[in-house]
Write a structure and sequence with these properties.
elongated; mainly alpha; HTH_AraC; 321 residues; transcription regulation; Arc Repressor Mutant, subunit A; Four Helix Bundle (Hemerythrin (Met), subunit A); Helix-turn-helix transcriptional regulator; single chain; DinB/YfiT-like; 4 strands
Length: 321
């Protein structure tokens, strides 16, 4: 982006994002980036192709439009967008969207405005930075996603042969995959975190609020897996279709805000899911489950081929046997 590296640009964007709800002037924003006002404006303008003030106003309008589509009042949306009066907000909104804010929700329009840089507000409180389209698709997507989905379902089937006491037995005391997910000492907790990861990241990619913790009965876990598995696969396939692996969103709910590429998120989920599936398969075997499904994708392919219905053999006269 005009001699400003993407990681440097994101570092400049963080103060802007963090100050959306603060009425800071350009000097104060530059100070948060530890730069002079001149250098902050020059670098941000070079990287964005948009003046910092215009960029911030557009983000605020995009957020206001998104809030309006979710039922926020015009008065509240205008105040959150840093306008001193509803009239001033309405004028600015109409210039940007071609419609009054009071009618935006009914119009079902896109809250994103045209931008010279592909940087937009990303619900509920982040940024989406559009990357350049990749020349080639990620051709392993189908294989990785299908194996993950198949194996998770089979592990749930295997867990169904255990009693509640076995599912809640601490067979791996203190076992932790990711610190912010907590310990996973039991088979039930491992299944829950395997599914929870997809629920959380699907919500983040789709721009929804953090999901609530779900049911942990086997039936509840299966229902959650069916929903989250289908949504996560659909999101991954849509990202692949659009060659959007390098699109970046800044998650403002992190402290401090962090940037993630869509491809990195998909790879993160599949990587740690593979680890969790491996550990869980071993735990199920220890608890006495026989014929635990194979965790290796190569073994899975052989199972899949064996399970695939074979076409009938044709005789010379065209009859099938």
């Amino acid at each position: 982006m005009d001699n400003v590296r993407p990681d440097r640009l994101r570092a400049l964007l963080d103060p802007v994002l963090g100050a959306l709800d603060e009425r800071l002037d350009g000097w104060q924003l530059a100070g948060r980036a530890h730069l002079s006002r001149f250098h902050f404006d020059r670098l941000l303008s070079a990287g964005l192709g948009e003046a910092p003030g215009a960029f911030r106003r557009r983000l605020l309008l995009e957020r206001a439009a998104w809030r309006l589509s979710r039922g926020t009042s015009v008065t509240e949306a205008g105040f959150e967008a840093a306008y001193d009066s509803t009239e001033a907000f309405s004028r600015a909104f109409r210039r940007a969207y071609g419609t009054a804010p009071s009618g935006f929700a009914a119009s079902a329009g896109d809250f994103r405005l045209p931008a010279p840089n592909g940087v937009h507000f990303h619900p509920p409180a982040g940024l989406l930075v559009t990357g350049e389209a990749s020349e080639t698709p990620m051709d392993l997507t189908d294989r990785l996603m299908d194996h993950d989905h198949w194996l998770t379902g089979r592990l749930l089937d295997s867990a169904g042969r255990l009693t509640d006491g076995q599912l809640d037995r601490e067979v791996r005391p203190g076992h932790t995959v990711l610190a912010f997910d907590g310990a996973e000492p039991t088979a039930r907790r491992m299944l829950d975190r395997l599914i929870w990861t997809k629920e959380v990241w699907s919500a983040a990619i789709a721009g929804r609020d953090m999901p609530a913790e779900g049911e942990r009965s086997l039936d509840g876990l299966r229902r959650r897996w069916e929903r989250s598995g289908a949504e996560f696969r659909a999101l991954a396939y849509d990202i692949r279709k659009r060659h959007a692996w390098d699109d970046v969103f800044v998650d403002a709910l992190c402290d401090p805000p962090q940037s993630f590429t869509l491809g990195g998120v998909i790879a993160h989920v599949l990587t740690f899911a593979a680890h969790r599936r491996q550990v869980l398969a071993g735990v199920l075997s220890e608890l006495g489950v026989e014929d635990v499904p194979p965790t290796c994708p190569m073994e899975w392919e052989r199972v899949r081929l064996a399970e695939r219905p074979h076409p009938p053999t044709r005789l010379r006269g065209g009859e099938a046997r």
